[in-house]
From TrEMBL:
It comes from Larkinella knui. InterPro entries: CarboxyPept-like_regulatory (IPR008969). It holds the Pfam family CarboxypepD_reg. Keywords: Carboxypeptidase, Hydrolase, Protease. One of its GO terms (molecular function) is carboxypeptidase activity. The lineage of its organism: Bacteria, Pseudomonadati, Bacteroidota, Cytophagia, Cytophagales. This is Carboxypeptidase regulatory-like domain-containing protein.
Length: 256
């Protein structure tokens, strides 16, 4: 009788152990890492990529409290472009930036969010970001991801209708993200009183007055000189502002 009880007891324990392995394996499989596309309560998470969709490490992600000034939480994207931060109760909005040194100047660049809506810290959210070289910022109409080019004529020299001048920007070397740019013709935008959205890079710039086809001379208005061929090779000023303007370029032009 005792022997039978022992055998029955042992068989029962083995049965429970086997069931535990099966159930435990099932729970482990279904309870793994959370789906990165779905929000996790109490956390802000997401992925940061460059313009080609590749992971972008080292970006700074900000969760800003929408009710209190300068109350924010920071995270940094890892080698795979992923980030995750805990968000307390409250209303939060996510943004991201990346810093780059390019041709000896430091640039601070905003990244584009896939969703600009505020979210509850308790509910959590997923916000992905991408580095864009140009385009209007969805959360700040009239502001752009590209650099701003201020255009003026030399005092006493024409033409005065800058909107009728075609400025050709030819990249000299790769753009700030390492990509290869192409020559682009820009015009002065009277709505913004500048050329508002040029990808950050080093450019050889030439200008033509369209009504007559005359070639104009251009230079860096800050400290440049006119050259024999009338062109100017210029960089944007970076995050250290010049004339209270970040990521800007200052062109001055004149008739020969």
């Amino acid at each position: 009788m005792n022997t039978l009880f022992k055998k029955t007891k042992n068989n029962t324990l083995l049965a429970f152990a086997f069931a535990g392995l099966v159930l435990g394996g099932g729970c482990s499989k279904s309870g793994g890492d959370p789906d990165p596309a779905k929000p996790t309560a109490g956390y802000l998470s997401g992925r940061v990529t460059d313009a080609q969709g590749k992971p972008l490490p080292g970006a700074t992600i900000f969760a800003d409290n929408t009710m209190f000034y300068n109350d924010n939480i920071l995270a940094t994207s890892d080698a795979n472009g992923n980030y995750r931060m805990q968000t307390p109760n409250g209303s939060w909005q996510a943004s991201a930036q990346i810093r780059r040194t390019y041709n000896g100047k430091s640039y601070k660049l905003d990244l584009e969010p896939d969703n600009i809506d505020a979210f509850s810290g308790n509910d959590g959210a997923v916000r992905n970001f991408q580095w864009k070289l140009s385009g209007e910022k969805p959360d700040n109409p009239g502001a752009f991801y590209g650099g701003s080019v201020d255009v003026t004529n030399e005092i006493g020299k024409g033409p005065y209708d800058a909107e009728n001048i075609a400025f050709t920007f030819t990249p000299v070397g790769p753009l700030i993200d390492g990509s290869t740019g192409k020559p682009v013709v820009y015009q002065y935008d009277t709505d913004y009183n500048r050329i508002p959205d040029v990808p950050i890079g080093r450019y050889k710039i030439t200008a033509v007055y369209k009504p007559t086809g005359a070639k104009l001379q251009v230079r860096n208005r800050v400290d440049g000189t006119y050259t024999a061929d009338g062109s100017a090779t210029m960089d944007f000023y970076g995050e250290i502002p010049h004339w209270s303007c970040n990521n800007c370029m200052f062109i001055e032009y004149r008739e020969p």
